[in-house]
């Protein structure tokens, strides 16, 4: 169909009107899909590669953990998720604060969900926020977390940490995503003390982002351990020759506990004394704040 030189044609005007109505109908269908949560694509449509294009409209499907929510207008929310294929994503969920919303309760913090997004263009992260048009629960970890204060505060700190380590939207962070899913699952089941689960998550988050502390060999010269001194600026334990001002001398039990949490030796971690756990938590918090350059607000409420 030629658009140039036909502006005066009645047939051309009718065609333009018909095309505009079809495009508007496709947009409304995509936005309104959130109210019909029973419709689900097959397994082959899931993940970051699940995208269907219809002109300027794209539908994406991905798995994600809800990190936090923000109120928007009278009935909407902005949902922040850490997804498997697209990293951190912020999307608008329309009408989820209404009492008749069929999928609003699924988009709460700690929820592991399968989400469908609608975005203009061929990229999920663009100029505007995408729309969350459909959500199905994979695992509702919130039920086993929010009923216990220690679990809730530890879980909130885990969500905030995951968001801070994925500050660039649209960049995949699969290791951080899998680490968060495993941490929330362990926390919800109550398999270990909440503060130990949190410290293990913080240490492993530091490790997958390139800030793994050393608890055996000297972080500066590599001298085999055990070494006595600990310095957050140096990257872990140091020998006497590499000791820097401001280093502390923690107990060997606290260092052994942190090493066990980092490597997944839960038998050793569960057997530690409370005083050594508190000492280790202090080291983890100081090390995390050093690399994040500012503290986590939720850590102040965590029970030690």
TrEMBL record:
<feature type="domain" description="DNA replication/recombination mediator RecO N-terminal">
    <location>
        <begin position="57"/>
        <end position="123"/>
    </location>
</feature>
<dbReference type="InterPro" id="IPR042242">
    <property type="entry name" value="RecO_C"/>
</dbReference>
<protein>
    <recommendedName>
        <fullName>DNA repair protein RecO</fullName>
    </recommendedName>
</protein>
<keyword id="KW-0234">DNA repair</keyword>
<comment type="similarity">
    <text>Belongs to the RecO family.</text>
</comment>
<dbReference type="GO" id="GO:0006302">
    <property type="term" value="P:double-strand break repair"/>
</dbReference>
<dbReference type="InterPro" id="IPR037278">
    <property type="entry name" value="ARFGAP/RecO"/>
</dbReference>
<dbReference type="InterPro" id="IPR012340">
    <property type="entry name" value="NA-bd_OB-fold"/>
</dbReference>
<comment type="function">
    <text>Involved in DNA repair and RecF pathway recombination.</text>
</comment>
<dbReference type="GO" id="GO:0006310">
    <property type="term" value="P:DNA recombination"/>
</dbReference>
<keyword id="KW-0233">DNA recombination</keyword>
<dbReference type="Pfam" id="PF11967">
    <property type="entry name" value="RecO_N"/>
</dbReference>
<keyword id="KW-0227">DNA damage</keyword>
<dbReference type="InterPro" id="IPR022572">
    <property type="entry name" value="DNA_rep/recomb_RecO_N"/>
</dbReference>
<dbReference type="GO" id="GO:0043590">
    <property type="term" value="C:bacterial nucleoid"/>
</dbReference>
<dbReference type="Pfam" id="PF02565">
    <property type="entry name" value="RecO_C"/>
</dbReference>
<dbReference type="InterPro" id="IPR003717">
    <property type="entry name" value="RecO"/>
</dbReference>
């Amino acid at each position: 169909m030629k658009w140039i030189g036909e502006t005066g044609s009645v047939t051309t005007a009718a065609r333009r009107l018909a095309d505009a109505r079809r495009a508007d109908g496709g947009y409304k269908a995509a936005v309104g899909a959130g109210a019909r949560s029973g419709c689900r694509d097959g397994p082959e449509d899931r993940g970051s590669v699940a995208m269907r294009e219809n002109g300027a409209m794209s539908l994406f499907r991905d798995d994600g953990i809800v990190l936090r929510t923000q109120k928007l207008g009278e009935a909407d929310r902005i949902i922040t998720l850490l997804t498997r294929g697209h990293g951190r994503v912020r999307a608008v969920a329309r009408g989820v604060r209404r009492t008749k919303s069929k999928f609003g309760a699924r988009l709460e913090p700690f929820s592991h969900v399968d989400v469908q997004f609608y975005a203009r263009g061929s990229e999920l992260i663009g100029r505007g926020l995408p729309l969350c048009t459909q959500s199905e629960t994979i695992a509702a970890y919130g039920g086993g977390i929010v009923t216990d204060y220690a679990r809730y505060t530890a879980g909130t700190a885990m969500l905030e940490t995951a968001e801070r380590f994925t500050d660039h939207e649209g960049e995949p962070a699969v290791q951080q995503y899998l680490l968060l899913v495993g941490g929330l699952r362990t926390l919800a089941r109550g398999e270990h003390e909440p503060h130990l689960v949190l410290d293990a998550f913080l240490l492993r988050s530091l490790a997958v982002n390139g800030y793994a502390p050393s608890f055996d060999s000297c972080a500066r010269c590599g001298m085999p351990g055990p070494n006595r001194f600990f310095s957050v600026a140096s990257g872990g334990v140091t020998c006497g020759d590499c000791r820097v001002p401001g280093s502390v001398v923690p107990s060997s039990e606290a260092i052994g506990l942190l090493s066990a949490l980092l490597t997944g030796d839960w038998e050793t971690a569960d057997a530690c004394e409370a005083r050594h756990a508190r000492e280790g938590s202090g080291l983890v918090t100081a090390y995390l704040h050093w690399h994040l350059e500012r503290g986590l607000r939720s850590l102040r409420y965590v029970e030690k």
